[in-house]
Amino acid sequence: MSETHQSEIAHQHRAKVIGVSVAAAVGGFLFGFDSSVVNGAVDSIQDTFGLGSLFTGFAVAIALLGCALGAWFAGRLADVWGRKRVMLLGSVLFVVSAIGTSLVVTVWDLLLWRVLGGIGIGIASVIAPAYIAEIAPARFRGALASMQQLAITLGIFAALLSDALLADSAGAASDDLWWGLEAWRWMFLVGVVPAVVYGVIALLIPESPRYLVGRNRDEEAARILQEVTGEVAPLDRVREIKLTVRRESSASIHDIRGPVFGLHPLVWVGIWLAVFQQFVGINAIFYYSTTLWQSVGFSESASFKTSVITAVINVVMTFVAILFVDRIGRRKLLLIGSVGMFIGLLMACVAFTQSTYKQSGSVGDVLCEAGNTTKECLTLDDPWGVLALIGANLFVVAFAATWGPVMWVMLGEMFPNSIRGVALGVCTAVNWIANFTISMLFPTASEQLGLGWVYGFFAVCAALSFLFVHRRVQETKGLELEEMDAVAASRLEANEAVRIAKLGQ
């Protein structure tokens, strides 16, 4: 076979791997869309149902409890039903949630449909990176795993853009648009389209070779490895997978126990990565940015536009992560990101401490939002408004290029195969619970403490994330899952020996 022909075959297989990875990452698009579409509807929901700031935060954040639930069970369901069927389940939940949320009559209906949508998001957040990690070769697995985060950022952008377009078409988010439905209801209903696309794609992509090996369908797994990834010796690879799958099949919560507060140290590393990714406050931007900028005096239209620009920055910088994650490495990108996030958040913190209250509708006060019924409104005078915008967007740049995608890559790689499914489910569930905590408390904390204190807390978390990565996180670049399994499993055995020794004492 000539070198030219071999090169053509290699390109074909690379295209196939990229194709199925992109298809799986459509779940990430729904993840981003469904979690951020509420951004443009927050104020309308609050006014429609007469909610206070704390309950508004709860109504926005309750979907994240569903996410934690979906993430917790997704791995187990995927092992029983297969990756494709669980993706299809996520698609159905997205469709039902989008329709239900658009037609809510009471706040309790809203909470129910938000939770169901959250379960779908949780499923997508686990299955997509796991599927990609299982089917992608090590040499560009990091870049392909980052496709998940790119899809999430595209979903966020699509949600914020559609929110802005629908609000502009109606005049305001709370005004009627088509068929007697307000614009904010259409914001949710639009989500039916990508959800259906995700379901169709789930039926078309091949099943994960690891799942097939676990169900003793070795020949089918070998065929997929050969046809999609171009594996030269697929049966040998199947035998390698079978050895690790046997250890995975009996994995349970008991298997992630260790000497550090009852959990294996690697699981704690994953948990803290998941917590820091949320405690730097990224979703305070993507769930509340429109409300945030209105609260400091921007008009509704300007706030929507600012949110869309931020989403575009988020998408563009995710490409940077895809380009460099397999070149620079995961750990170094996380460290760089922590520094960038700290600087951006500190700038926003300083700017928000300079906010002032002005009489609503006072002469020349163009920043006070129209229709404000309070006597005073919060504003940012020059140059503090510009500094807040620069700081917030610098933070998004740093997060999108590093912590956004890289944390998910790390969680998909860092655990031994024997506990990967359980550990990934635990860490992802913790990520959603941390997201819920920040998202629910942000409106009340901003109102009671002020945005300066809130963004100061986010900046402290960014600084702590740097120290944590520097001391605790190890590089996983360029290793096959089975190679990492050998290293991580040896650590697991060593820590188990320490735990047993302590019990003996």
Shape: globular
The CATH architecture comes to Up-down Bundle
The tally of domains stands at 1
Mean pLDDT value: 75
Strand share of the residues?
Answer: under 5%
State the strand order across the main sheet. 1-2
What class, by secondary structure content? mainly alpha
Number of helices: 20
Characterize the structure shown:
The protein has one domain: MFS general substrate transporter like domains (Growth Hormone, Chain: A, Up-down Bundle), CATH 1.20.1250. The protein is 76% helix and 3% strand. The protein contains 20 helices and four strands. The strands form two sheets. The protein has a two-stranded antiparallel ribbon. A two-stranded antiparallel ribbon has the order 3-4. A hairpin with a 2-residue loop joins strand 1 and strand 2 (181-182). Helix 12 (265-279) packs parallel to helix 18. The longest helix has 34 residues, at 3-36. Residues 359-376 and 498-505 have low confidence and may be disordered.
Layout of helices and strands:
Elements: H1 3-36, H2 42-49, H3 53-81, H4 83-102, H5 107-135, H6 141-170, E1 176-178, E2 181-182, H7 183-189, H8 192-204, H9 209-214, H10 218-229, H11 234-249, H12 265-279, H13 282-295, H14 300-324, H15 330-352, E3 356-359, E4 376-379, H16 384-401, H17 403-413, H18 420-448, H19 451-472, H20 481-504
Antiparallel strand pairs: 1-2, 3-4
Short description:
The chain is mainly alpha-helical and 505 residues long. 76% of the residues lie in helices and 3% in strands. The longest helix is centred in the N-terminal third of the chain and has 34 residues, at 3-36.
